[in-house]
């Protein structure tokens, strides 16, 4: 069992509550005003960026896009964190749950100087400010959210619900990192966010960093009040305490007459108190106290659209839902609206913030921490800068001995688990396995020989609470959203990992996968964003072996969802056995900037390829299994049997076995596909085959019976451009399932060996009526197999005990059980 220790750096030192001077308070306020001015300018202005002349209609953008309501709260918090970071030299990352407050974070990074360092055309002068304003939500410019283009971002926040999950993922194994995570009160109503408050039960206070949740209560969503802003404070306090936090409350009332300077003084004192408490927790942890503390969090209540126009057209704006997006949605349409906008902008007194050249005054930016302490320049927010290659064992050492095709039985994920155990041992601080309570269920439990599941909640006894520890490399919580968010945050900050889940329920994170894939796609075209480790899925307990759980657990459609994304990002692998799974996963763990989806059944299954053969097969991505076919060298086959997926592979081989014996003159080619994207055209996907290669393998004129793991229409979608597409007949899952036996499941979906033989007979012109007897026997075999399951509750012996026969060069069988369809009565003969 490995353990990890860490010492607490001086960065976690306590400073006491600062008694800020009037000058310091003024600096904070001037920085905040500058950030708010730059934010409003991004939403509205096309020209005249510093209001050096009266505002004209042509100075305003024709299309006004963006979100103002949350922005002033985000900039306020950023200003105060800057002050604390500078004083404490505390490495800090800023995660903005309401990522639609994009203008605020762009403004902050501009004031930091990092924006101009990253984008040299956005200079620190009036022309640079004009360009900064114009590009925001403008064709050819930048998005309105805290997108990958924004320095310091690891969380776009365009889709709400994942701020805390990402924040905790960033904190794991970063013991000296503070992650300030702003949670919008609208976001707090989402299921994933409500669940993610429990992340504090999975933090080791010595070896992990600290997440400081800041619940930003500004009261409204797009058009409605928010739940948490409309409950009594004591009820909200009880909720946060119930989640295991110690809440601190800060409020600025909508009708407050308090000066901004006094507001800054109050919040600075509260923030120092919170950070000192965190420092005390880290000090106790460094001394060996790893018990779960009540981590502090802040409830930050301010008016929606704070510092904006109080009313527009006589209607309340600040402090209402009307401030959410663009309060003056038609600033060019009337003189009054134009005057309202100009008054709003001038309320920040830009003449006090910028010099004659348009550069932000030194006393304003003096609040900015130095170098990499700037939140917009923290290396953790550009994880590829910190990424180290995994120290991987030789996967060949874990190979299953396969003396002949089908000559061994193994559970592929269990074999992979042994390999991952060594990966964990060699990478004790930058590799984790995530799963929704399914690591052992998916047969990866060998990793518990090396590590435990991280757990900081209550323990009962070692007899009951197996493999739980304060520090561990396995992260399990029964929320796909949570573990996906943790993994994403972990990867985005420069580490490695994988997520294992049941195939049917990985759909729960469809939208999260969308966002991550989009992030990767965008960052591929941002030169300063360094590549990060791939997001690796291992989907087991798949559709064809969910016969015990039934129809609700039978859905292979995540693959369809994945292949909708850009080809440069997604990879889908269907290894047919354990050795191909080992080769595939070693490749996935070495890769960068991909989403790798690997589907592998966990039940005992025949093994077909030696490790050398598996490596060659995975390198090609697909290939002819000549030992399984009956085509003669130098001749075209009569039919192609193709398979993608472990269960379809078994059924195709069993069908080939029947055809070999029943129709010995039929020339059958067997192709196995492990890299699904090889089926696409090379112009559509980097892994795609050229037309020439595809035609050589699959032919252009012969029938192709394709047994596929998932929904069969995906095969047609991937191959629709191919010359022989009209010859492809795909079989797969077609939403037929129940609680039944494994073979009955494939029969329900017409993927079984008998139906595949019928497909061959129906589609090979030379067979026709001369194979009518065999076709009838196949139909009868299906009937008998179905009846057997209804009588005995298990699959018919000829299916249950089938193995691939050892066939010599002459095509004669050397061993293996015999198949006699005509003699099989469905009785007890085995």
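Sequence proposed for the structure above (830 residues):
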């Amino acid at each position: 069992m490995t353990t990890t220790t860490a010492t607490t750096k001086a960065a976690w030192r306590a400073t006491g509550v600062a008694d800020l001077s009037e000058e310091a308070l003024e600096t904070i306020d001037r920085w905040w005003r500058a950030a708010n001015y730059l934010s409003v300018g991004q939403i509205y202005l096309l020209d005249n960026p510093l209001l050096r002349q009266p505002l004209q209609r042509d100075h305003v953008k024709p299309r006004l896009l963006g979100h103002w309501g949350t922005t002033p709260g985000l900039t306020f918090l950023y200003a105060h964190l800057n002050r604390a970071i500078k004083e404490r030299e505390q490495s800090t990352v800023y995660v903005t749950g309401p990522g639609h407050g994009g203008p605020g974070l762009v403004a902050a990074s501009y004031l930091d100087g990092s924006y101009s360092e990253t984008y040299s055309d956005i200079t620190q002068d009036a022309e640079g400010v004009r360009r900064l304003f114009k590009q925001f939500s403008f064709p050819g410019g930048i998005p309105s959210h805290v997108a990958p283009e924004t320095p310091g971002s690891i969380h776009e926040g365009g889709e709400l619900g994942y701020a805390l999950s990402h924040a905790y993922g960033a904190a794991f194994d970063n013991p000296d990192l503070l992650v300030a995570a702003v949670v919008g009160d609208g976001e707090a109503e989402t299921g994933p966010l409500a669940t993610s408050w429990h992340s504090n039960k999975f933090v080791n206070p010595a070896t992990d960093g600290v997440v400081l949740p800041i619940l930003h209560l500004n009261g409204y969503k797009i058009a409605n009040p928010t739940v948490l802003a409309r409950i009594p404070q004591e009820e909200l306090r009880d909720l946060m305490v119930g989640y295991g936090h110690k809440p601190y409350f800060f409020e600025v009332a909508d009708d407050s007459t308090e000066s901004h300077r006094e507001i800054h003084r109050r919040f600075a004192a509260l923030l120092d108190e919170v950070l000192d408490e965190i420092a005390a927790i880290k000090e106790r942890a460094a001394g060996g106290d790893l018990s779960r503390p009540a981590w502090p969090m802040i409830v930050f209540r301010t008016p929606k659209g704070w510092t904006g126009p109080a009313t527009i057209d006589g209607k309340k704006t600040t402090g209402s839902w009307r401030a959410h997006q663009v309060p003056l949605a038609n600033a060019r349409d009337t003189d009054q609206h134009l005057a309202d906008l100009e008054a709003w902008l001038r309320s920040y007194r830009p003449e006090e913030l910028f010099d004659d050249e348009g550069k932000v005054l030194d006393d304003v930016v003096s609040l900015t921490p130095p170098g990499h302490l700037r939140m917009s320049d923290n290396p953790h927010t550009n994880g590829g800068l910190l990424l180290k290659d995994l120290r991987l064992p030789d996967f060949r050492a874990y190979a299953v001995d396969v003396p002949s095709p089908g000559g061994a039985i193994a559970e592929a994920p269990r074999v992979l688990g042994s390999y991952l155990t060594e990966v964990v041992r060699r990478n004790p601080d930058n590799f984790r396995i995530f799963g929704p309570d399914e690591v052992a269920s998916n047969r990866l439990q060998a990793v518990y020989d090396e590590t435990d599941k991280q757990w900081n909640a209550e323990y009962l006894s070692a007899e009951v609470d197996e493999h739980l520890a304060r520090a561990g490399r396995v992260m399990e919580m029964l929320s796909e959203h949570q573990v996906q968010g943790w993994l994403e945050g972990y990867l985005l900050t420069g580490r490695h990992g994988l997520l294992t889940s049941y195939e049917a329920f990985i759909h729960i994170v469809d939208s999260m996968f969308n966002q991550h894939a989009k992030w990767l796609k965008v960052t591929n075209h941002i030169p300063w964003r360094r590549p990060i480790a791939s997001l690796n899925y291992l989907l087991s307990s798949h559709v064809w072996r969910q016969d015990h759980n039934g129809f609700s657990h039978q859905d292979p459609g995540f693959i369809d969802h994945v292949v909708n994304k850009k080809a440069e990002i997604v990879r889908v692998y269907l290894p047919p056995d354990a050795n191909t799974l080992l080769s595939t996963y070693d490749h996935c763990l070495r890769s960068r900037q991909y989403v790798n989806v690997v589907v592998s059944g966990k039940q005992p299954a025949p093994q077909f390829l030696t490790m050398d053969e598996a490596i060659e097969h995975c390198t090609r991505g697909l290939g002819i299994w000549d030992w399984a076919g009956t085509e003669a060298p130098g001749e075209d086959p009569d039919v192609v049997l193709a398979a993608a997926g472990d269960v379809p592979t078994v059924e195709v081989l069993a069908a080939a076995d029947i055809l070999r014996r029943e129709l010995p003159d039929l020339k059958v080619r067997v192709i196995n596909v492990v890299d699904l994207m090889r089926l696409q055209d090379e112009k559509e996907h980097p892994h795609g085959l050229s037309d020439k290669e595809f035609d050589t393998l699959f032919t252009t004129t012969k029938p192709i019976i394709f047994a596929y793991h998932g929904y069969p229409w995906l095969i047609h979608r991937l191959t629709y451009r191919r010359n022989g597409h009209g010859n492809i007949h795909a079989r797969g899952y077609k939403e037929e399932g129940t609680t039944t036996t494994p073979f009955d499941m494939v029969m329900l979906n017409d993927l079984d060996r008998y139906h595949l033989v019928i497909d061959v007979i129906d589609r090979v012109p030379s067979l026709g009526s001369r194979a009518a007897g065999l076709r009838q026997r196949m139909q009868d075999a299906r009937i008998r197999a179905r009846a057997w399951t209804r009588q005995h509750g298990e699959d018919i012996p000829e299916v249950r005990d089938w193995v691939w026969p050892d066939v010599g060069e002459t095509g004669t069988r050397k061993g293996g059980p015999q198949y006699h369809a005509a003699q099989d009565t469905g009785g007890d003969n085995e």
